[in-house]
Design goal:
- By secondary structure, the chain is an all-alpha fold.
- It has a domain of 63 residues.
- The chain contains two helices and no strands.
- The termini are far apart.
- The mean pLDDT is 89.
- Keywords: Coiled coil, Membrane, Transmembrane, Transmembrane helix.
Length: 93
Amino acid sequence: MNIWKTIVFILVLIVLGIGMYNLRSENQELERDVDSLSTAVNDLESENKLLLEKITYFRNPENLLKELKSQFNYREQGEEMIIIVPRTGEAEE
């Protein structure tokens, strides 16, 4: 009868060992997920900060007009535009 108790005890230890191994593996996977999500949160917080800075910048009508002029070559009535083209490939004398 003692041999059966020993066999059952060994089987219980094996089952518990397998269960602990599976829990440890799952724990490691969850830690990796937490790390990647933390990185994603940090990236989104940085992006959010930049967007808030842009919103603050563009709330000023002068800045908005300046960007409109620079990106879309917009000009107000009566305003003239000067385009400066840098020299390229010419040898200086």
